[in-house]
Amino acid sequence: MIQAEDRRFHQHAGVDWAIASPAPALRHRQGVGCAALRYSVHRIRRADATITGVAPIISVSNLSKTYASGFQALKSINLDIRRAEIFALLGPNGAGKTTLISIICGIVNPSEGAVSVDGHDIVAAYRTVRSMIGLVPQELTTDAFETVWATVTFSRGLFGKPANPGYIEKVLKDLSLWDKKDSKVMTLSGGMKRRLLIAKALSHEPQILFLDEPTAGVDVELRKDMWQVVRTLRASGVTIILTTHYIEEAEEMADRIGVIAKGEIILVERKDELMRKLGKKQLVLQLHNRLTGIPPNLAVYGLEVNADGSELMYTYDTRAERTGISALLKDLSTAGIVFTDLNTTQSSLEDIFVDLVRKSK
Amino acid sequence: MNFRAVRAIYLFEMARTWRTLMQSIVSPVISTSLYFVVFGAAIGSRIAEIDGVSYGAFIVPGLIMLSLLTQSIANASFGIYFPRFTGTIYELLSAPVSPFEIILGYVGAAATKSVVLGLIILATAGLFVPLRIAHPVWMLSFLVLTAVTFSLLGFIIGIWADGFEKLQVVPLLVIIPLTFLGGTFYSVNMLPPFWQTVTMVNPVVYLISGFRWSFYEIADVSVGVSVTVTLGFLALCLGAVWWIFNTGYRLKT
Question: Which residue of A has its CA nearest to B96?
């Protein structure tokens, strides 16, 4: 029964599997580009301002958080979130993702630094700021004994919005919870509870939506349906910040990606830029005779030789119209360079993410 | 002022009362009625009048106060503790509401329930013993003031508690003994001089004394002192709540 309800949500969301098919994987040769991606945050912010020319909707400045136990969860974070973008914040457990979100939403007090939302300080203008924000928490925290309708209506009232049964009805229908409106929350499946949390977060028509690991523990099919809901929200002008462990979620959804580790932002990059930088592959040739240098007629290929001269490496863009491999092999033959074996290496965003996180330790 | 949020919290809490009608209203009414039957009709008929008031009628204000105190604390403490326990407190903390509005919603609902319960018990008492209310406005004022004050105390307990057991500790180990020893079933003047002095440390004495005065114009302490002590305790609770929200104690890390 519960599964049937989830499936109805899936049908209602009208997921077009052709559209919802996975985006091209973000690829990069392991190690290549990592250093280049490690921009200083200030440089990124200046670059963003130049590109967009629009004030960020969220601006985090030198934000730090040290808990009473002495654990420093955030270390001087600087981050700008643009209007109507989907920003994915990636990081391992304990990296500081939830702490960052909780501070912006008013649940956790910052130790140092400032956050402004749409130009308003989150402390001084907390009413204005919080009425703009919807939060879907990581845990399935719900009022077990309330009905779906009551708990969503409560959320709208709590955020100071006048009663609007029509809007609540639309939200519940959009999330395929309408036929459960009179059911107690405790009777809902996990997937439905997750959608209920989204409905509660949307009940006051927020301009910014925080999704803290929204698809944790959700099956693949439902996860894709949720992605579709998020895309629809973004299309309506809602800015979405999601944290996730799933790299594919970031690949699928995000306009920009940020990586946080040990309380520090170690990467912020546009997804398409990442695609460009990471969408590369490396061809490694095992040479018959060691090379001491690159012959001049091969300089155009940007080849690299390993330390002992036994391997020749060629990095190319898999998405380019021509990879240049055929020409390279021909020119190698012309230059009299013989190879005994060849292989290609390719790393996913996940590899890059893991590498970044490991190096940050 | 976010009146809609106050209303939402208030209605949410009041809705819980209807869902738990047996626990919230019926159960305390039945237990208090049993007190009237046992101490009012059965034993009370063998006890002499106190200051010209039959024993059954004499204990009515104290029994109402007993229910008022325990239910105010129970309603308010559970109201704020349960969201903390389930984790739904995140919504309250991330909402555009001030501490005052949160208090108004939770304490307002808890106090409303207690006052309604007190009035129901009063009406029930009228079925068992002859009642006279000399100062109805003062009676209602004491009822509301005590309900609000102890709902605030309940709210503080709900913030302080880190388990369901602690929610029960204060009502069971502190409030009920203080109420029983605070003149519910006797006049303080009936105690030996030494214990008369000791019992004046018990704040519930002042609540019951003032409340009983509004019924029968008899009091163990002057009504002015009763009101002052009650207002003083209210101020103490307000100070504690202000400190909680100012520091984020048990709410924000």
Answer: A127
Helix (H, G, I), strand (E, B) or coil at A172: helix
Q: What is the CA radius of gyration of chain B?
A: 19
Contact A287, A311 (CB under 8 A): yes
pLDDT in tens, chain B (253 residues): 888 999 999 999 898 888 777 777 788 888 888 887 887 777 777 777 787 888 888 888 888 988 899 889 988 999 899 888 888 889 999 999 988 899 999 999 999 999 999 998 898 888 888 888 999 999 999 999 999 999 999 999 998 988 888 888 888 888 888 888 888 888 888 888 888 888 888 888 898 889 999 998 888 888 899 999 989 999 999 999 988 888 877 777 7
DSSP state of B88: T
**A83: Cβ–Cβ under 8 A, 6 or more apart, which residues?**
A54, A56, A57, A237, A239
What distance in Å separates residue B157's CA from the closest CA in chain A?
Answer: 21
* H-state helical runs in chain B: 3-19, 21, 27-35, 55-58, 60-86, 89-93, 99-128, 136-160, 164-170, 176-180, 193-199, 203-216, 223-247
ipTM: 0.83
CB atoms within 10 A of CB A257: 24
CB contact under 8 A, A157 and B95: no
Substitution target in A155, A158, A184, A208 with the highest count of B β-carbons within 10 Å is: A158
DSSP states of B180-240 as a string? HTTTSSS-GGGS-HHHHHHHTT-HHHHHHHHHHHHHHS--SS-HHHHHHHHHHHHHHHHHH
- Cα separation, A196 vs A252, in Å, equals 23
- Distance CA(A147)–CA(A132), nearest Å, equals 25
**Domains parsed from chain A with CATH numbers:** 4-275 (3.40.50.300), 279-360 (3.30.70)
- Cα B218 to Cα B125: distance, rounded to the nearest angstrom: 19
| B113/B106 Cα distance (integer angstroms) | 11
Transcribe A202-233 into DSSP letters.
HTT--SEEEEESTTTT--HHHHHHHHHHHHHH
Nearest Cβ partner of B90 from A67, A141, A143?
A141
d(CA B204, CA B216): 18
Based on the number of CB atoms within 10 Å of its own CB, is A178 exposed (0-12), middle (13-18) or buried (19 or more)? Answer: middle
- B216-248: b or e for each residue (b if 16 or more CB lie within 10 Å)? bebbbbebebbbebbeebbeebeebbeebbeee
pTM given for the model: 0.75
β-pairing, A86-90 vs A256-261, is: parallel
Q: What is the pLDDT of residues A15-69, one digit of tens each?
A: 222 222 233 333 333 333 333 333 333 334 433 433 455 789 999 999 999 988 8
Residues of B with Cβ-Cβ distance to A133 under 8 angstroms: 94
**How many A/B residue pairs have CB atoms within 8 Å?**
77
Find the chain B residues whose C-beta atoms sit closer than 8 A to any C-beta of A: 2, 4-5, 7-9, 11-12, 15-16, 19, 86-88, 90-98, 248, 252-253
